[in-house]
Amino acid sequence: MPKIETESQPIKTPSGLGGLIRNLHVWLALIATIPWALQGLTGAILVFEPELDHWLNRGMMDVEPTSEADRLDLDEQFAVVKQQHPELAPYVYGIDASDRPGIATRMLAKPEGEVGPEDGVRLFIDPYRGKVTGTQGYRDSTMGKLYHFHRTFYLPRWGRWITSTSALLLMAGALTGVILYFLRRKPTDTYRKWHTRLGMAFAPLVFLIALNGMIVTYRFVVFPLLYVATGDEIPQGMIRPPKIEVPDGVERIGLEESIRIAEEAVPNAKSTVILQPLREDSLRTVMRKKPNEPRDVGGTFVAINPYNGEVLDITCFTEGPVGGQLVYATEHLHKGEWGGYFGEQYMIYTRILWVFAAMSIPVLAVLGWGSYFRNRRRRRKEAPDESLGATA
User: Quick one: average pLDDT of 33-52?
Assistant: First the structure.
């Protein structure tokens, strides 16, 4: 009859390939447990960043709607910003074009010295009463602080390197964990048993989230490579945004006119965001969302000459080259928004799944270390007393 191993039997130190991979798995956890746990916890919260950000800032974002006839169009709202915040108006680069009732229009400004959207200032405009309900630096908001901690741990010089390295180690940890499952005997220790079950349930998702996090972090390098790998032409705007000739004495067309032009160019979609050029010789882009595009902002970009309204380019990341589709996928996959491919109503399920996957990371760390230290104590108890051998 085969011998049945129980928790009371001596523990054998793993050897061979299983022992090598186990030691690697343990050392990966030793090095990166804390970064993994912190990124898992913050990532789980950031899955629902838009909803939480709205709730935390509802005093600025929620407005009391009146009749639709009282609603100011985007050009009139931008005039309000010019009047009430002339110091920020020249730096407005993003304008909410979703036209949602009861929600303040959001405009994003990037003052001089700021280097990215996450560093900008948000302005909220009541479209019914023509007033700015509040301004807020993204870094000063609760979700903005959480986002920057998730990406950099508040370490400007080394933070992004640490988080990207942590993601790489997490991929290795998930992979070695799966290999160990097939190489080693079934666990009998309670901690290890649950660590194994939970790990096998979420390891593929954790690996995918970590991989996607690295891609997003180094998108300026990875995105062009995705086009090259698929044999597709890299969009000109990804290499060097095209410049246009600035005619003398001609003002830019209005924001509402830009939306109308985009609607004619890409019908059966809704406008979500207008990217306003800060340079005089840059294009204006209207982002459109088609029914099959999961992200709230959509995946279709209509580039317009802001002086004569000519449509110069239409980029659809969901129906164009494979490289562009991969780029678009990375933008929403990391937050679990990919359920929108099957219909917008299904996005909530994949986002919840992503929360569980992110939360599994700190739970796995606790269970793994619980098993590790418990087995160390058992080995010490079962080790022969060397002092008896010395006196014999």
Answer: 95
* CA–CA–CA angle 355, 180, 214 (5° rounding): 45
Residue type, 130: G
**Residues facing residue 132 across a β-bridge:** 125
**How many other β-carbons are positioned within 10 Å of the β-carbon of residue 267?**
9
Q: Of 104, 75, 79, 103, whose CA–CA distance to 89 is shortest? A: 79
- How confident is the prediction for the chain on average, in pLDDT? 87
CB 228 within 8 A of CB 47: no
d(C-alpha 177, C-alpha 180), whole Å: 5
Distances (CA, A) of 87 to 81, 110, 124, 135, 290: 9, 11, 15, 12, 35
Farthest CA pair distance, the chain: 104
CA distance linking residue 172 with residue 36, whole number of Å = 12
Tens digits of residue pLDDT in 185-224: 677 778 888 999 999 999 999 999 999 988 888 888 888 8
The pLDDT tens digits for 381-392 are 776 655 444 444
Chain center to CA of 186: 36
**Has residue 56 got a pLDDT over 60?**
yes
Between 330 and 152, residue with greater pLDDT: 152
How far apart CA 280 and CA 296 sit, in angstroms, is 28
> What per-residue string of b and e applies to 281-316 under the rule 16 or more CB within 10 Å gives b?
ebbbbbbbbbeebbbebbbbbbbbbbbeeeeeeebb
Contacts of 173 (CB under 8 A, 6+ apart): 25, 28, 29, 32, 36
Task: State the pairing for strand pair 105-109/121-126.
Answer: antiparallel
Residue 351 DSSP label: H
The 10s digit of each residue's pLDDT in 112-137 is 765 555 678 999 999 999 999 999 99
Question: How many CB atoms sit inside 10 A of residue 169's CB?
Answer: 19
Residue 332 · residue 293 · CB < 8 Å? no
How far is Cα 89 from Cα 128, in angstroms, rounded to an integer? Answer: 20
Q: Record the tokens describing residue 247, joined without a space.
A: 């005619």
DSSP 5: P
Strand, coil or helix: what is 285?
strand
3-state SS assignment for residue 302: strand
What pLDDT does residue 234 have?
79
Contact 107, 92 (CB under 8 A): yes
